[in-house]
Amino acid sequence: MRENSSPTGGVIRSSTASINEITNEERRTVYEYVVQHGPVRPRRLQEELYPNDRRAIDHHLALLTQKGLLVETDDLVRVTTDLNRVAESITVGLSRFDSLVEFRPATDADRAELVTAIRSMAGEQPSVETTSTMATATDDGTLHRRDSAGECAVYVATIEDTICGLVHVDATARSQTAHTATVTGGVVESRREAGIGTRLLAYARQCADRCGYEKLYQHLPATNRRGIDFLVDRGWTIEATRNDHYLLDGSDVDDVIMSATVDW
């Protein structure tokens, strides 16, 4: 796993799929600088990396932009969120459905459907974090992000272009936990008990692996025995329990912390 120290003491992970494409060491340095520092002005890049050679930074930026690794907008250079580098769409046939089920990264065109799906699951509390985390992902315009604060991504399952399941992967850049990510999500009620949740979880796990993560976590209220059993049956373990962590419907409820290694 490749890690880069940030000025704040955190760790920013360059996408394994992206960084391996950069064979030129100087261009790799430029790319990793942008990953570590978030959106940065070209002038700052030149001052920090090539203070006496404007043509060199222009050359490297042009090639990195041409390869789709960096993008420059509003006089800011940022890492491209090219999802095809870490998440390829796949389709599978499940016996319950006549149509294929597609698993893919969410796009801006999915935003309205995502909100609808989230709201349909909001009252069920499949995960206490699901509603707030997913609402943040849809409301602030950031379905996929990679910057100095960390990474997040939203993946969906669709049948005939209609969203039937979703999963959100979120990670911070703190050095102590940079190798881990938190997963939340669910499947709409009418599409459950058909294998979509299992496949969607496996898809998110595969994407996390390609991004270099080593361990995934989920937080579930102890009252959600169905969700806990679902994860245990798929190789997750109960790593810890925080007593009376949640207040649900006026009652104190334990937080069950589930974990799974990515290299399965």
Model description:
By secondary structure, the chain is an alpha+beta fold. The chain folds into 2 domains: 77 residues, Arc Repressor Mutant, subunit A, CATH 1.10.10.10; 178 residues, Aminopeptidase (3-Layer(aba) Sandwich), CATH 3.40.630. Helix content is 33%, strand content 31%. The protein has 8 helices and 13 strands. The strands form 3 sheets. Strands 5, 6, 7, 8, 9, 10, 11, 12 and 13 form a 9-stranded mixed beta sheet that branches. The chain has a two-stranded antiparallel ribbon with strand order 1-2. It has a two-stranded antiparallel ribbon with strand order 3-4. Strand 8 and strand 9 form a beta hairpin. The two termini are 16 Å apart. 33% of the residues are buried.
